[in-house]
Amino acid sequence: MPSISILPADRVFVLTGAGVSAESGLPTFRASDGLWAGYRIEDVCTPDAWRRDPAGVWAFYSARRAAGQKAQPNPAHFALAGLESQLPGRFFLCTQNVDGLHERAGSTNLVHMHGELAKSRCERECGRPPVEDHAVYASLDEVGHCPCGGRLRPHIVFFGEMPLEMPRIEREIGRATLMIVAGTSGSVYPAASFVHWARAAGARTVYVGPEEPLNAAAFTHVVKGKAGEVLPGLFQVES
After folding, report:
1. Tell me: the pLDDT tens digits for 55-94?
2. CATH code, domain carrying 142
3. Residues 210/224, Cβ–Cβ less than 8 Å
């Protein structure tokens, strides 16, 4: 496919999903042999699971941390970081992924709408910010507490909880003239709605992924292929 031009007046919004991390060896949520195989969502990723069995939740996320620490950024991560470096002040990245691979590749202007694996926060939502936490816990007794007394929980958006940074995300979508969506199937909301919001605001919309997404009709360009193979060289920044 010919390269897609990014014009001097363009503002770019990027949304990435699990497919981008999968190319670094991290299983996707819906893969038959993936991350959640052998686990019921209700047991490890809901507020009720946390109240009922915090030890089980921490065991699950500690295993995810161990896997995430071994993973390395792939060409898709580096391509997006390179694009950001060419578009100072005009590039914003929103990821559904909880790993830190985008940052490790060099991305800086980004938000994690579903939380961050390498952080913890107070279970009481007392208002204190999340803290860096890379520990892989062998038992619940090793998990620390907030100064307010609440136990620390993974800084992860559980099913049924509100995604993070939504006001900022909505503002950035409203300002964007080009939206790039990579590695997400269009089945998880509210992220699947972002392309519709962008189109309503007049933006061009580009999808990159191995399969056609469920919301394909909302894209002006659908580019099939792995993000790590397609993103490098796909966009031409015009001066």
Report:
1. 999 999 999 999 999 999 999 999 999 999 999 999 999 9
2. 3.40.50.1220
3. yes
Structure tokens of 229? 């193979």
Among candidate residues 109, 100, 39, the one with its CA nearest the CA of residue 67 = 100
Domains held by the chain: number: 1
DSSP summary character for residue 192: G
- The pLDDT tens digits of the residues spanning 154-204 come to 999 999 999 999 999 999 999 999 999 999 988 788 999 999 999 999 999
Supply 49's token pair. Answer: 């699971």
On whether the CB atoms of residues 232 and 183 are closer than 8 A, the answer is: no
List, by residue number, the catalytic residues: 114
Instruction: Residue 191: name the closest of 93, 83, 77 by CA.
Output: 93
Copy the structure tokens of residue 107: 């991305």
Cα dist from 80 to 72, 141, 210, whole Å: 15, 40, 18
* pLDDT of the residue at 185: 84
DSSP 3-state of 219: coil
Query: How many CB atoms within 10 Å of residue 52?
Result: 12
* Domain extent for 41: 4-237
* Closest C-alpha among 228, 231, 230 to residue 24: 228
102-123: burial string, b at 16+ Cβ within 10 Å, e else = bbebebeebbbbbbbbbbbbbb
Residue type (1 letter), 58: W
Do 83 and 206 contact (CB within 8 A), yes or no? no
